[in-house]
Design goal:
3 strands; globular; three-stranded antiparallel beta sheet; Four Helix Bundle (Hemerythrin (Met), subunit A); DNA-binding; homodimer; 246 residues; mainly alpha
Chain lengths: 246, 246
DNA sequence: CGCGCAGTACTTGTATACAAGCATCCGTCG
DNA sequence: CGACGGATGCTTGTATACAAGTACTGCGCG
């Protein structure tokens, strides 16, 4: 059956259309990660839809994705809630990122991409700029770790790490409100210097120290603000009265 | 403002209700991973809904989750397709699982959980049973690797690995149609013996060899069946005529 | 004052209707 | 015969309606 038109070959262009769901998803995710929506807060699909000016559909689909990331819990016929920070999940994320980031250091090529190296340098400079807000430092921190993975050719593994470390991030963000980031910035420099000099073992050691320090920081937070963390066994959502902490 | 009833404390029971979306999601995911829905196949929300006897809603929500896992691609106003196996994503999954599984071996406790050890033993026995189907071996393989992670207290990291290794699994499944699994089963035994004897370095070496062998297997597949793999740059979905491979 | 019980309001899950956009088909024209 | 162009059908995105189920509220009773 010969066809007149073969190879119409319409290469479907970019799939990144500005869709309503994407906007809602990003908004909600940001609010959860920045604790603007605190752990335990009740999320009503209807309320969110109304406040965001959309229907339930994109809101609901966004919540499904956030559930997948562990940032939200949905109880059928009961309600949706920002999940409390789960210490087990924090530890899982810590293990995962440590495994991934340390392993990537073993795959660093002999010749580092000069462009990436330049970006990382500028990034580190900014990290030491005085008067940096917590949010700014966080963004730089993310970019730095992502950049290191890219340097080893494993940049796409970062997406997996990101989607798994939501619980870790929320705890950290809270901690950085009090702990100044200078120490972490210095550790970043130490890691980077080792990477530049080709000292894989040194880079691994520095990275491990750094990540462990971040993790210990979280443990300290937990002692000061246990309300944000989940207790053992399933949490107890209460629909209205978001009594979360006191 | 005193309230009459405090601590109503209705602990919301299990959230694992048998929902329609869950069933659809699991069905679709299984069909994609087992290649019953081959890479490149067109998925119509309407058709799927009709054939599964539900409305578009649960189908659509399932597809969103599958997109998140990279198993499906959705092009707005064009169509949804089972994603072709992307060599880059296969490599990413390989890197991730290697990093995680090797790192977990470092965290093995001195005293191994005897119950888990027993399970793993039985698992390995079954792997060597003759007449094993590919699907059976796959299930055992998954259980074995998951069990090893549990042995080190990192069982929950398996979920992340699973959600990232869909592309790797599809390629492997195709390969195992021809390559008998005996070799892999023997490697599993070797890893397990090293773990039991507390030989972390040996276990790491054996595990690395094993995972690399699996990966190389995938490369061999690709040469024989390039149709299932994505070419460089964005794939070209065609709505009707699922010309996928000639 | 405390408790129990029924009604009500709200929740999420699912089904359906409508909107916007793209690919295909087929007639027309060169 | 080949190429162009508009009508048509199908696609996903979004909005809305309905269903099933739960928690909260307030009344009546002991």
């Amino acid at each position: 059956m010969t066809r007149h038109t073969r190879y119409r070959g319409r290469v479907t262009r970019t799939n990144s259309r500005r869709t309503s769901r994407r906007a809602v998803y990003e908004t909600l995710r940001r609010k959860v990660l920045t604790l603007e929506l605190p752990p335990g807060a009740a999320l009503s699909e209807n309320e969110l839809a109304a406040s965001l000016g959309v229907s339930r559909t994109p809101v609901r689909e966004s919540l499904i994705l956030l559930v997948e990331e562990g940032l939200v819990q949905v109880f059928p016929q009961v309600g949706s809630f920002v999940s409390r920070v789960d210490p087990d999940k924090v530890a899982d994320a810590q293990f995962l990122r440590e495994a991934v980031e340390l392993a990537s250091l073993e795959d660093l090529p002999a010749e580092l991409d000069p462009e990436l190296v330049g970006e990382l340098r500028r990034n580190l400079d900014q990290q030491h700029r005085p008067g940096l807000t917590v949010e700014d430092f966080f963004a730089l921190d993310e970019e730095f770790h992502h950049g290191l993975l890219q340097l080893a050719g494993h940049g796409s593994a970062w997406a997996t790490v990101v989607s798994a470390k939501g619980h870790l991030d929320r705890a950290r963000r809270l901690g950085l409100q009090e702990t100044p980031p200078e120490g972490f910035a210095d550790q970043h420099v130490e890691i980077f210097e080792a990477v530049l000099s080709g000292d894989v073992a040194g880079a691994r050691a520095a990275m491990r120290t750094h990540l462990r320090a971040v993790f210990d920081d979280v443990e300290a937070i937990r002692e000061r603000s246990p309300e944000l963390f989940a207790s053992a066994s399933g949490a107890v959502p209460v629909r209205r009265n978001v009594v979360v902490w006191e």
